Each structure stands twice: as structure tokens, then as C-alpha cells.
Amino acid sequence: MFGRLLHRFAESDEDRLANEVRAWADSMPETIRISDVRERARVRLAGVVRRITLHPGPEGAESLSAVLSDGTGEIVARWTGRGEIGGLRLGSRVLLEGVVARERGRLQIVNPSYEFA
Q1: Dihedral of alpha carbons 83, 28, 20, 98, sign
Q2: At a CB cut-off of 8 Å and minimum separation 6, what does 102 contact?
Q3: Which of 24, 46, 52, 79 is the Cys-Cys partner for 31 at CB 3.0 to 4.6 Å?
Q4: Residue 42: what are its φ and ψ, rounded to 5°?
Q5: What is the DSSP letter of 29?
Q6: Is the pLDDT of residue 58 over 70?
Q7: What is the pLDDT confidence band of residue 34, given thresholds at 50, 70 and 90?
């Protein structure tokens, strides 16, 4: 018990958060870890929103992207033609489903289906 308590004090906040997110994501049925995804594969992922960016486009064709983490890695979810998604906030727990691609060295899913957990 003392060893676990000592480890808890030595653990950074970032490590503690990653462990909590990983445990939650692993408990979601029929999902895989972000670290295990393959390009061009259809996947179902669970993650927590870490960053949200609105990208302006020509003639108001904006897109919204969110970086999700499951404690094992990060992936960008991008919704084209959307300026906002109700309920999508920093810290939101989200389940995504779509096809993984790599753009500019980062994993991403374009126009994934989603649900809040």
C-alpha cells in the first residue's frame, strides 16, 4: 500500500489523467486503442477532447476539428461544413466511428459518426 501511495505522489498530473482516460476508453465496448489503429481501416474509438479548432474556409465552408486522446495516443476528428457541434467541449468523452487516414503526419478521421459517452 505504501508503495502505491508513493507512486501516486510521484506521478505527474498528465500521467494520472492519461491513466484515467485509458481505463475509461478501455471500458467502452467494441472500441480499439488509438495506438492500435491502422490507416484506411474503419474503427470505433473512445477518447476525451483535448483541443478544438475552427478552420475557416472559402465562402463560409468552415470545418471543425477536435483532437481526441485515449491515453495511448491522439487522433484528429474533422467535420467539414460544420462550425460547431452541440455538446462538443474540452474534456467531453466521445465515441467516434470512421475511416482513419494520415494527413501531415497525424492520424485523422474525416466526418466521423459520433456519440457522447
Answers
A1: negative
A2: 39, 108
A3: 46
A4: -80, 130
A5: T
A6: yes
A7: very high
pTM of the model: 0.84
| Whether the Cβ atoms of residue 24 and residue 46 lie closer than 8 Å to each other | yes
Q: Report the first-to-last Cα separation within the chain, whole angstroms.
A: 32
- Give residue for cell 505527474: 12
R_g over Cα of the chain = 16
Q: C-alpha grid cell for residue 48? A: 476525451
**Could you tell me which residues come within 8 angstroms of residue 103 by beta carbon, excluding any fewer than 6 positions away?**
76
Is 60 exceeded by the pLDDT of residue 92? yes
Alpha carbon distance 42, 57 (integer Å) = 27
